Amino acid sequence: MSRLILILGDQLSPSISSLDGVDKEQDTLLLCEVMAEATYVGHHKKKIAFIFSAMRHFAEELREAGYRVRYTTIDDEDNAGSFTGEVRRAVTAIDPLAICVTEAGEWRVKSELESLEGAVGVPVEIRPDTRFLATQDEFRDWAEGRKSLTMEYFYREMRRKTGLLMQGDEPVGGRWNFDAENRNPAKPDLLRPKHLVVEPDEITKEVLGTVEALFSKNFGTLKNFGFAVTRKDAERVMTSFIEDFLPNFGATQDAMLQDDPYLNHSLLSFYINSGLLDALDVCKAAERAYHEGAAPLNAVEGFIRQIIGWREYMRGIYWFAGPDYVERNFFGNERPLPGFYWTGKTHMNCMATVIRETMENAYAHHIQRLMITGNFALLAGIDPKAVHQWYLEVYADAYEWVELPNVVGMSQFADGGFLGTKPYAASGNYINRMSDYCGTCRYDPKERLGENACPFNALYWDFLARNRDKLKSNHRLAQPYASWARMSEDVRHDLRAKAASFLARLS
Ligand code: FAD
Ligand code: SF4
Questions:
Q1: pLDDT for 181
Q2: What's the confidence (pLDDT) of residue 220?
Q3: Fold of the 136-201+225-320 domain
Q4: Within 10 A of 73 (CB to CB), how many other CB atoms are there?
Q5: Which residues lie across from 72 on neighbouring strands?
Q6: Which of 75, 125, 298, 492 pairs with 442 at a CA distance of 20 to 30 A?
Q7: What is the CATH code for 3-127?
Q8: Strand partners of residue 98
Q9: Which helix (H) or strand (E) holds 474?
Q10: Surface-to-core class of residue 37, CB atoms within 10 Å of its CB (0-12 exposed, 13-18 middle, 19+ buried)
Q11: Which of 349, 102, 55 lies closest to 206 in space, CA to CA?
């Protein structure tokens, strides 16, 4: 019986469940670059190029392994423009008796796959995505009935399940979490090794040309494209991270530096999320480095927690919270996203730096996303759906299942605390402590009210004041509310007036 196996652009793993039991003689694998996926938001050019090039290389890998592969490029004149259209074309050409696909990573595509059978008239088998540690049902079982969905407890379950950094039932080193050792600022370090850059090969060069021609108006630049697009190169990036950066990953995890966009981060999210790397393999490689004495426990535990803790947790939350999660707006924020999110043209040096780096690299590290662009949007009361859309567009690792809970839940607190315990709101003081951005900024992070006052300061207090009714019972905010109460009436008034005038100019 011949079957058609549909493989989506973030399913580029030889272990993907849809490949189980494929008959290389009879079955045909289908990969297709379609406009519907390339345009449902205006993705960063580098994101589109990365995914298309990785898909083309994966198709080659599959052909070399003896599979029959049908591949449609985005500029193929017969391209039907959607998964359903391309499956229909393949059904007409091949006449398969059944279709098989691994479940989609987001609600939008899930619903398209569920209507595929009716649309093309061939039975469709949708298999679970086994690349995650916790199934959607397991996460639901863990989450249901809990008062609070604290990530830390979920993470411990994942440590027990995988045995990573475990000694019997106990965590290696006697503690589950070494974050207390991981919150240092960083100094510029000219001797820091350089992150691996992969030169584009002929396939990638062709993709870059096509993306520039078809998506010239999209956000960002294609210049200096250096992503790995094959499993082999992604593994080289992983090895170089483990050897050169993992030992210092923990210590500088929360730091931000003007001319060092990557610091000791791994730059592996692109590859893990698209399927080029397996999340558990990456964690095991980091764990090995610890056991071989090549990286300290605080770094390795911190790194593994990001993957088997935060990454898995975010995916669990995405499916558990349901398709309406995107509509959450706890603070009722309605302000449109300021134009400088698309250009980086603002006098706030922290914002300008992170946005410019995002335009260049389709990347910003976690603290830049959370405490600079995310923090500003939260303090300024930007519509969380607009913020979500921006994050989905501008980062090459952005897929809704991981981006949405990070933005709506963690960064914008738009779910009112479903995911996090308090909003990640901070004044210029925090940014000054954790980065060197303020030194060359037009504004002064220590000033609250003067001409040169850092806008984050008045915005921070205004955020707390205007959302007091919603936040005052949160014990984690007791200290800032106590500080606000200690300020004189005049200062409070002036801070709110300063914020109002800044926000009026923003609009
Ligand atoms: P490292 O700092 O080296 O971390 C190692 C790995 O841990 C990452 O590769 C990633 O797989 C995982 N990880 C770390 N933090 C998280 C997290 N909070 N959620 C899920 N996985 C995590 N991550 C995405 O993959 N896609 C997104 O679209 C995305 N959007 C985000 C939006 C906001 C507002 C915030 C605050 C975070 C977002 N993250 C997203 C999480 C995190 O910022 C990125 O995973 C990380 O910056 C990727 O860079 P890296 O590979 O160098 O990570
Ligand atoms: Fe950002 Fe304020 Fe520092 Fe300028 S002074 S870089 S606006 S935190």
A1: 86
A2: 98
A3: 1.25.40
A4: 15
A5: 32
A6: 492
A7: 3.40.50.620
A8: 3
A9: none
A10: buried
A11: 55
Ligand 1 mean position, distance from CA 267 (Å): 9
CB atoms within 10 A of CB 240: 17
Mean pLDDT, 10 residues at a time, over the chain (507 residues)?
Answer: 95 98 97 96 97 98 98 97 98 97 98 98 98 97 92 97 97 95 85 95 98 98 98 98 96 94 97 98 98 97 98 98 98 98 98 98 98 98 98 98 98 96 97 97 97 98 98 96 97 98 93
The side-by-side arrangement of strands in the sheet containing 98-102 is 68-72, 28-32, 3-6, 98-102, 124-127
Q: What is the pTM of this model?
A: 0.98
Neighbouring CB atoms inside 10 A of 5's CB total: 27
Q: How far apart are the first and last CA of the chain?
A: 61
Q: Taking CB atoms and a 6 Å cutoff, what residues make up the pocket around ligand 2?
A: 348-350, 428, 431-432, 437-438, 441, 443, 445, 454-456
User: Pick from 392, 427, 384, 372: which is nearest to 409 by CA?
Assistant: 384
Domain 340-506: state its class.
Answer: mainly alpha
Q: What is the pLDDT of residue 32?
A: 98
> Cα-Cα-Cα-Cα dihedral of 171, 174, 179, 184, to 10°?
-130
Quick one: how far is CA 96 from the chain centroid? 36
pLDDT of residue 343: 98
Ligand 2 centre distance from Cα of residue 376 (Å): 11
As a dihedral over the C-alpha atoms of residue 302, residue 307, residue 308, residue 310, rounded to 10 degrees, the angle is 90
- Please give the number of the atom of ligand 2 that sits closest to the Cα of 372: 1
Asked if 394 and 219 count as a contact pair (C-beta separation under 8 A), the reply is: yes
In the chain, domain spans: 3-127, 136-201+225-320, 340-506
The tokens describing 363, both together, are: 């990347």
